[in-house]
Amino acid sequence: MKITTIGLGYIGLPTSILFATHGHQITGVDVRPSVVDTLNQGLIHIEEEGLQDLYNEALAAGNFKASLTPAPSDAFIIAVPTPNNDDIYKSCDLSFVESAVNSVIPYLEKGNLVIVESTIAPRTTEDFVKPMLERAGFTVGEDIFLAHCPERVLPGNIAYELIHNPRIIGGVTPACTEVAKAMYRTVVQGELIASSASEAELSKLMENTYRDVNIALANELAKIGIDLHINALKVIEMANRHPRVNLHSPGPGVGGHCLAVDPYFVAAASPNFSPLIQTARAINSSMPAFVVETTEKIMQDAPNKKITVFGLTYKGNIDDIRESPAMEIVEMLEFQGFDVAKYDPHVESATLNIEEACADSSLILVLTDHSEFAEITETATALMAVPRVLDTKNIVQKIATGVTRMDFGNVHQHTQTMVPQL
Questions:
Q1: How many CB atoms lie within 10 A of CB 43?
Q2: Residues 29 and 164 placed together within one structural domain of the fold
Q3: Which Gene Ontology BP annotations are present (predicted)?
């Protein structure tokens, strides 16, 4: 089967490679010439465990090529970004989806399949994409098949989860669902769940909204604990020993192109009936400012204004900085006049080594749960002006002797931080 994928980012590229390693001929399309050139030189441009080996396998079989333009195919997969619009509800910006669909229309033939994997607002496939294909002269469900098939994967384990996780197949018509199921069945070993396109869209969004709301509860608890001088992390640990309780962990905010983005699409689609979702978004969006305020309190007695940030990505052990609260915190600290040194072994732009980053620093601020940060040794702390750490991810398990370790459970013992009201 010939497949063209539009968008070669964190989902489009792994998806393309997996189809290629299962015998399909893939044309991977991206608007960035640097991405196309890198891939055609035999290298992937994202950090993902095992993906380079799979890409080597796809290239050896002659089943993948990168291009700036689509090619005639049996199926077309749209996997482009869907950022937020700059409006009151931060609704879904469909400009990249529109451009991608327009780019494949000249190559469509009767019997082709169009899949939207991009995360989109409810009813987008039926109310936005379907009319585009109809205006081009096709009848969806008869001579062109259209479906929304959202991914549900964990960065760092994408290749495995694309194959083994259940996959929702949301066809615009039952015939569309069956045609899409036939394609995914060649790769996916997990259950293929049939649904309408709109059900698939809302299901994907609510999976991430569920997590966002629960993280917001944990973040609110962390603020309450600091305000009342109670160890919120201990509270969470004890509460989770209840057989029907599973509180999440607090942190500096949420990021990536899921939790920090998707709930807004639901709220924008139905603003009058989503107050809980909107409140959770406000709580999680407030965490970077809360971390900065807490840091300012800690730094009041510092001999200098140097802070070392550990971690720039939105989650651990990946290189993805999209919507990262760490990046927002760095920007806010720099705006407040702090000298911020950045150390992240997964991000190329964080070029300082650990000794340089920590030298003469008055605080290590841990913002990402990279496994490398589970232990902070004297290599990092020996040359600090003040040897102390604020661990916002509760990842640090071992630390050099004589270093003060603070987290959202005990930071109230070191500051008089007042919690801002939302």
A1: 11
A2: yes
A3: polysaccharide biosynthetic process
Beta strand 144-148 with 167-171 is: antiparallel
Picking from 289, 291, 303, 237, the residue whose alpha carbon sits closest to that of residue 415 is 291
pLDDT digits over 26-43, tens only?
A: 999 999 999 999 999 999
Residue 233 lies in a domain: no
CATH number at residue 271: 3.40.50.720
CA distances to 293, 299, 411, 412 from 416, in Å: 11, 12, 9, 6
- Give a yes or no: residue 118 inside a domain: yes
Number of C-beta neighbours around residue 333 at 10 A? 22
Q: What is the pLDDT of residue 416?
A: 55
Q: What is the domain extent for residue 99? A: 2-190
Residue 198's alpha-carbon distances to 77, 85, 114, 122, in angstroms, are 17, 20, 15, 6
Q: What pLDDT does 152 receive? A: 83
Q: What is the mean pLDDT of each run of 10 residues along the chain (422 residues)?
A: 96 96 97 97 92 96 98 98 95 98 98 97 98 97 97 85 95 98 97 98 96 97 97 97 96 90 96 98 98 97 97 93 95 97 91 90 97 95 96 96 96 67 42
Could you tell me the pTM of the whole model? 0.91
Provide the strand spans (E) within 344-400: 364-366, 375-376, 388-391, 398-399
Strand locations in 117-266, DSSP E? Answer: 144-148, 167-171, 192-196
Q: Which residues pair with 365 in a beta bridge?
A: 309, 390
Q: Are residues 156 and 8 in the same domain?
A: yes
d(CA 151, CA 162): 7
Do 273 and 162 share a structural domain? no
pLDDT in tens, 96-137: 999 999 999 999 999 999 999 999 999 999 999 999 999 999
- Number of structural domains (the chain) is 2
Do residues 308 and 391 both lie within one domain? Answer: yes
Positions marked active-site? 204, 258
Could you tell me what percent of the chain has a pLDDT over 70? 98
CA atoms within 13 Å, Cβ hemisphere of 340: 26
The full DSSP string for 34-94 is HHHHHHHTT--SS--TTHHHHHHHHHHTT-EEEESS----SEEEE-----B-SSTT--B--
Assigned domain for 137 exists = yes
Cβ-in-10-Å burial (0-12, 13-18, 19+) of 11 comes to buried
199, part of any domain: no
